[in-house]
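Submission sheet (multi-component)
Chains listed below:
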Amino acid sequence: MSDVTVTRATPQGMVTLKLPPGDVAWGPALAALGLSVPAVRRLERAGDRAALWMAPDEVLLLVPDPAAALAALAGPLAGAHHLAADVGAARVVFAVAGPRAREVLAKLCPVDLHPAAFPAGSARRTRAAQVACMLWAEAADDLRLSCFRSVEGYVADLLTLSADPAGSVGLFRA
Amino acid sequence: MRLETGGRLIDRTRPLRFRFDDRWMTGLAGDTLASALIGQGRILMGRSFKYHRPRGPVAAGLEEPNALVTLGTGARAEPNVRATQTELFQGLRADSQNRWPSLAFDLMAANDLVSRFLPAGFYYKTFIRPRAAWKHLFEPAIRRAAGLGPAPKAADPDRYDQVYAFCDVLVAGGGVAGLAAALAAARTGARVMLFEQAPHWGGRAPVDGGTVAGGDPAGWVAAAVAELAAMPDVTLRTRATVAAVHDHGYVLVEERLTDHLGGGPGPRRRLWRIRAGRVVNACGAFERPLAFPGNDRPGVMLASALRDYVVNWAVAPGPAAVVVTNNDDAYRTALALRRAGISVPVIADARPAADGPLPQAARAAGIRVATGTGIAGTVGRGRVVAVQLCDAGGGGHVTETIPCDAVAMSGGWSPAVHLWSQPGGRLRWDEAGAMFVPDPDHPPTGAAGEPIVTCAGAAAGALRLPDCIASGARAGDPAAAAPPAEAEAEAPLLPVWVMPSGAGPRKRAKMWLDFQNDVKVSDVELAAREGYRSVEHTKRYTTLGMATDQGKLSNVNGLAVLAQALDEAIPRVGTTTFRPPFVPVTIGALAGEARGAVFQPLRRTPLHDWHAAHGAVWEPVGLWRRPYCYPRANESRADAVAREVLNTRRALGLLDASTLGKIVVKGPDAGRFLDMIYTGAMSSLPVGRCRYGLLCNEQGFLIDDGVVARLAEDTWLCHTTSGGADRIHVWMEDWLQTEWWNWRVFTLNLTEQLAQIAVVGPHARKALEALGGMDVSKAALPFMHWAEGTLAGIPARVFRISFSGELSYEVAVPADRGVELWERLVAAGGPLGVMPYGTEALHVMRAEKGFIMIGDETDGTVIPQDLGLGWAISARKPDYLGKRGQMRPALADPDRWRLVGLMTLDGSVIPEGAYAVGAGRNANGQTATEGRVTSTYFSPTLNRGIALGLIRRGPERMGEVLTFAAEGRRVQARIVSPVFHDPEGKAQDV
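Outcome: structure written.
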């Protein structure tokens, strides 16, 4: 039994939603998807959907059906200055799970991944070595990394190298 | 020699074989390479940099300047490794450096005989005259004679690792002060990281004695480490050196993972990249050498180092050692030597009296103490065999010669302030200790002005054990109580910078300050006489402190000598700057994982695997790989490109255009925003239409181009160049976030969301019609229009834009359906003669049409007007980025080089980068030029060479023949229109 597993997750529908910070449409728009507005660097999940904080004017929605989500957003967003777009095909998601998951990501991402600093429900835009990525914690030892599809091979190679037990660091001991 | 008993760190039951130069020897587990060599009677370990003087170890730790070896062989050879820090392992192989032909017999040692002709600054003086001598004589000779170990030529076979970490308190140094600091901080619940460069905890305390908590310091050290190890948020590492403390508490630590094992399956070293809330510098202090004549002879070492060799590893250069000192601490060495059975014929103490507890203990042990005494010289070839005593305050008249195998010298201590000083902490001169100590009133500060580094223990100048451990506890937690500790009281030291103080020039020329770089008291004094007053300038001029130890041993002595020579106070002369790293960090650790497959990210388009499976050869475009062409069996690349061009012009070509940047710009102010970003008017573009646009920087120079499509009343899609997507997106956000922050505009980079395929050629429409789903007729979708629909059941946006001059559709579909569309096009295009084409065919076809390419026709100095693109600049707009820049006289100059076509008279291809030769010479006396080639290709369509170029007043000179020079030949070419093929544009508008 390995203490960390790295797997390429199944394709994940994604929608980027941009609204001015504090706009009144935020609440109704996310409510239309059964979600609440995520706090800074947080993930709000409801079943198979989630909203990840990306920036003061941007969230990333994880949804099973982007077209349906865009349709559901149309009403609440009518008349609001906004941008909503299907971005699921632009990205891939890796699941990094197990007791050593945080350490594997700490070799690549300049993020404090201590369980107290990055508990379940945390989300961060950061980088993995030389490319941009997104991290979030579904559970204490179930972390996800999303990057652009063009660098999937690079990130897969990085994660494989980083997970090599011979390079174990011993951080975040339970 | 190895002593019969003792040795705190060695295991006498585990002998280890190792090889030094061509001799196999035996050491013990726990030895360093240096202790093992001393144990084998080997003191000579290297040669100095300039004079090739014989050198033995002077220290026992990371500050060692002399005992540098090349460790390992072949690709694993690592030069300039300190033997004093290298842990011995079975089969270790080390080679001495900077000697020829062998360490014992070095021909270059003749440099020593001419040393008075190689004084301070000799290197710079060789620059001056005669001029030719530098190039032909001095430089080759200096390069051969100087230098340490050679860098390996083969690729490093080892792996390196990096890890990011965060903590509240980072403690550098695992001696008693560092341990006390870590314990105190960890007990408050802080996240603590503690790094010790040596393989063992405890620093000097277990060697130096005294008591902590009523017992042996080693016992307290073990208990402290055990308590820390049991805490969940404490990270402890030995063999990990804190190399740098940067602003905002960014700390670099190099950890040695497998060096002590001689290799292993995992990474060899790890670079920790840490954000620390605050740093405790508990790196201890470095003992200072004394500058007496002949102090560089092997066998002369720091008193603390000889104590370490005897106590830790039970080795010594021989059965008798003289101690020379200006302080009480060195008496500990005399006592330790005596306890180990080594005779101490005399302790030469420069002070007029020595009556503290330690000197008393030495006398009680029967050791002769000679106060007011210094050393006038050492005797021996290759190693010391005797010392000559003299009056410490005199001119060096020899009063007595005492045989010995080693000299233990102590000139006092210098706190290791490096990690305090690197981020900006200031120092003050402590008169009593004759040392620079951290000035607590001027610490390095963080963003809020708070101190980010605290010094503790010897690094703070607290040299005695009770003070040392107490300052450690305080640094960890001001409220913490320190464990009680005791040590002998010590009388004040007497600052001694030159011994004997009245020595004349001949003796001063044999007093070494920097052992590795051969800088002597006389060199620093010469620099002062030649007018050097700044310590920084003196360092460069004399090379004092420029050795691999970066002045850890030499700096304070050197600047004290400089101060004396300048008749200044030492603190007024000051220190040189403490720059990272504290000790050298191997390049591999800095590179980390970035080698081989993950050296650099490689970006693949959604169609990458198809291209690879169909024989594409690749062209790097930024980080992307794009197909250059698809050669068939036995087909050259040039032939493949020609075939792809002709097939596209005559039948049907497919191009993977997915790398093109695609940025959506949306909002009530989007039109106004794009009118500023682009030179043309995008706000007036009707929905459903496309327009070619240019982007300039504020200076007016062209930075990118591409087709803009208006998707909706408030939404535009901006295509950028392949290399420009990220850069232009950032450019847009930069203006929106910093200048026009109140404009209501959102941007989104959709480059990776979409696969884009160009369907190009006379049969392009037929191919799309065969897929079905959209009306792509001229009436429904005219040139420079776009439409949305489905093709072959795939949701698609189709743009009628052309970069080839042919009938062309660019089809964008979700990236995950790109392969499906491509394969459908290949199948449907079969009967139409479809072939994929690569970037080179794309380039040739655009050049045949006179279309510019960013990066070919532009280089950061070209404006749209130079390229005949004035038509893409809106004259009616009040402003756009670059407008005012383009009004500057130099950019409005009619003499500027402007775009034209070029056709060689003989049909050949002009070499890349050729310049048009002008008349006469320019202001610099060089051949005048009046233009250059920017793109040059063989055109399969015209069956001859064509080129684009920027020529002075080019468009006004149609028909003129110019001479181009490059690659050693000259070619004549006529100025023509840049549009070589289909100037009326009939083919693309059908």
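Remark: The mean pLDDT of chain B is 94.
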